[in-house]
Amino acid sequence: MDPEAIKRRRQQHPECSYLSDWQTYSAGIVATSIHNLICGMENGPVYIPMPTGSGKTTGAIWGILDVLKDYPDKRICFLTPYKKSVDSVFSALLEHLGPEVVGHYHSDATIFDKAEELARQVVVLTHSFIPYNKGKLDDRDLFIVDEAIYSTGEATLKLQHFAAARSWATSNNIMPDEFGAAYDYAHAMDVELRETDKKFIAPQNHNELVWAKSIANDFKSEVYRQSITQDNNVDRVQIFCEALCEGLVFLAKGATGNDNYDPFYSAAVLGIPNLQNTAVLSATGGMLYDIAGSFKQDSSSKNDWKPPSFEHLTLVQLPNPDIHGQYSSWSHPTSRSQAIRYVDWLLSQIPEAQVYLTVPNQVLVQALSSYFGLPQRGEIELPTIVEKHGKTIHLSHHSLSIGSNDFKDCDAVIYLWDNHLPQSVSVQRFHTLADEPVTDEQLEDANNRYLVGDYRRIREAQYLDNMMQQIGRGTVRNIDNQGNVGTMSAYVLTEQPNRFVSLTAQYRECQVSCLEGYKAVTQPKGTVARIIQYLGRCERGQDIPAAQVQEALNIPIRRLKSQLENDWDLMMLGYEYKAGAKGRGHSAVFKWTG
Questions:
Q1: Coil, strand, or helix at residue 99?
Q2: Which of 150, 169, 310, 398 is a Cys-bridge partner for 179, taking CB atoms 3.0 to 4.6 Å apart?
Q3: How far apart are the C-alpha atoms of 271 and 150, rounded to whole Å?
Q4: Cis peptide before 45 (omega within 30 of 0)
């Protein structure tokens, strides 16, 4: 850390005295990276990878102020997934810039005039603003995005959505031919997919579709907002057409595996009009961005910043109760009883009193709502607080978009069962981040039963991304002056033990244990996963001879050269595999890179 840089930032922002020295320095790195995008010292788009609690949002605010000081005419947009974050970032900027300069808007902000807010030089919005307000942000010189850039322009449709949009267009005589052509095109794709044994198909003639370009570029949904019916069918068809023009559309059968499926159309665009001047704040590193896309890590965090030490974080692998069937079937009395018995056992075993507990939403609804005393009908409002075994439990689910400050006193996070997403989500996110068209040739791998290659890598990254987002809710986010995270235990149940090994690689110097008693914890399978697990238990800061690993695990490492040289988990763990060469002193080694 640079003491002078910390001192200077503290003098500039005395209101941020609650930040530790390490957080102050990290926030300064974020501010520098944002400023570098505007002054030409950084070629975007970039991602800034720092874990939850590093001060990324504060650094983004500082970066905005720095940019406006040196470039007073620049127009800036800050995007976040959370409405609560919109309000807090807006309030912080308002103190420095005043109401004439900074504006904000989200779906609950009905008291604000949207056009008036968007006229401000700096505007703070949710991600969901982008897909339904095409062209409104074309005047922005800089975008700062808090996580999940791939979600700024997504739409999933069924054939009936095209039919509903066509009916609206016909009854209102607004581009009826174009919306009719959209339905006909979607119907033809549906027929084609049903006649093949493939799981995915992609359009082949997306550059020739005049009607799609018209809907994408000429249809102004805000003009007809009052006449557009519920469910945003027209808006979704417009996103479909925009993505179709870029080749970022495909049709998927789903996971039913029988003839009674209902295909769905996946469409996604990044949606940000000035992508080269975009900085993404990523709490989970570059897992997704390094697999696909033109994004690269910013040079400031890459060269001048050191990740925190997770020595005070304990990752606890939980045994898998092996409940049969998909989560949606766990309302069956046997499955529900198994899930309740397992969760009750777990809560009786752990010593922590303040707990953040998250499960898949379907598990909560189908199996655990009665155990936690939640309503059996209607929507469950989360997060909520329940008491079990003398513990205060903050109950949530994996896909809930909430900020993490509310749970910073929880000294335990419990993450139960994986956050399964359809395979189509992995396909969509890879192509969206890569900004490359979806073709049948590229979908050949995805048409297998299991995704492979980059599709498989991004699917696994999504699992880890969700785990890490949730683990970051608790006291681990409290990072002290020396860069040590707060003391916390994270209890993790994943159906794939290799996934737990990959998770431990993301948290350097963390402690690893398991909780047995319900049944034995499943050990990882596969040679590379076992190597990662072994290296994770070695003393950090020194090279590990490959011969030592080979002898300990009885694994012929030389045959794994290509896998080890490109393994993300190995890199995150702080090692690089160097193959052996002829001559004394040139044996293969896992080189410590720190």
A1: coil
A2: 169
A3: 9
A4: yes
